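User: I'm preparing a small set of examples for a lab meeting where we compare how different chains pack in three dimensions. I only have the primary sequence for this one, and I'd like the structure in token form so I can line it up with the others. Please keep the answer compact; I'll paste it straight into my notes.
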Amino acid sequence: MNVLWIYAHPEQRSLNGTLRATGLRALTAAGHRVRESDLYAMNFKPVIDADDFDRPSSERLRVGAEQERANATGGLAPDIRAEQEKIIWADTLVLQFPLWWFGPPAILKGWFDRVLVQGFAFGVRDAEGRTRRYGDGGLAGRRALVVTSVGARASGFGPRGIHGDFDEVLWPVLHGTLWYTGMQALHPYVVHGADRATSADVESHANALARRLRALPGEEALAFRPESGPDYDENLVLHADRAPGRSGLGAHIVRSPDVSAGDQSFRSANTSIASQTNCAVPSPCES
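Assistant: Understood. Below is the structure token output for the 287-residue chain.
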């Protein structure tokens, strides 16, 4: 595999830093080719502005149109083009970040905003002029694994947990970013109770991640429904015979017939540690 590891954590000595180092070693030892974007170490600029584009005029900035024009003409900022080149090279992306306020850190969100531009990752069309998205975007043919951590305990992220089902918390990344641009999202690797992890816990998580990465080539992706398939009508609404009796995010996952229609979440390959945390919310309190 050609793996691009995108790392968004400010501290190399953290649990996340250990997971990163272990993961990179495991991939290299398995014979895979690895490149990395360590966003904090790069001091990556996370905000879009007019300096991102080689603009022919000072007229009002229309971000989507300007992204598409600059992408087509080679007018994107050098740091954006460098990240796009890494994506083009890669067949697998690993996105590693702590979950802060129910989402990735701002620096990674800025990477999405600036790098996955219109005309490159989305807003591309097929031969018949139809927009390619949700399984057939500009980054189709690639797979992506989210590696993340939270301070809160796993129980609070269950189907009836106060924080909400964890898989739905990650929906904007897994479905709204990865699948939207055509990438196949793998089951996320999640560490709960990260801010209470002992040295033994950290070692256990690192070893588990290494095992997961060694098995990555044969791993199946989440079965999101493609927009170009037979599941949706012309208004992008599920047909009545698809996921009958179900609504919400889970209805957009293809399920086995034996799964209860009342269970509307999808289960990720989460991992938790024995020690419990007293962190009440998944805020910036993890390691």
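A couple of notes for your slides: The chain has seven helices and six strands. The first strand starts at residue 2 and ends at 7.

User: Perfect, thanks.
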